[in-house]
Amino acid sequence: MKNKITQMRKAAGLTQQDLADQLHVSRQTIISLENGRYNPSILLAYRIAKLFGEYIENVFVFEDLEGEKE
């Protein structure tokens, strides 16, 4: 699953550590999210979206098994 966390974080003037601190996760979690190596729980996805004032669908790009965006 792709996401826009890096762009949103930078636009907000936050470092990876700043974002991690605000979400109560490790900086490694933020790195893994930004690199697309980790799919967050629905709770973490909600907290990320809420922090940026966005809907989950505006932060995370969901694709079906055939690669089509939903």
Notes on the protein architecture:
It is a single chain. With 70 residues, this protein is mostly helical. It has a single domain, classed as 434 Repressor (Amino-terminal Domain). The chain is 54% helix and 6% strand. The protein has 5 helices and 2 strands. The protein has a two-stranded antiparallel sheet with strand order 1-2. Helix 2 crosses helix 3. It starts with a strand and ends in a 9-residue tail after the last strand. The model has no long low-confidence stretch (mean pLDDT 93).
Beta-strand content estimate = 5-15%
- What's the end-to-end separation, in Å? 12 Å
What's the oligomerization state? single chain
Number of domains: 1
Principal-axis shape equals globular
Which strand order spans the largest sheet, edge to edge or round the barrel?
Answer: 1-2
| Rg result | 12 Å
CATH level 1 name: Mainly Alpha
CATH architecture identity: Orthogonal Bundle
Assigned CATH superfamily: lambda repressor-like DNA-binding domains
Say what the CATH topology is: 434 Repressor (Amino-terminal Domain)
Average per-residue pLDDT, rounded, comes to 93
Number of strands: 2
Please tally the helical runs, counting DSSP H or I stretches of 4 or more residues: 5
Uncertain regions spanning at least 5 consecutive residues: none
Note the main sheet. 2 strands, antiparallel
Which percent bin holds the helix content? 40-55%
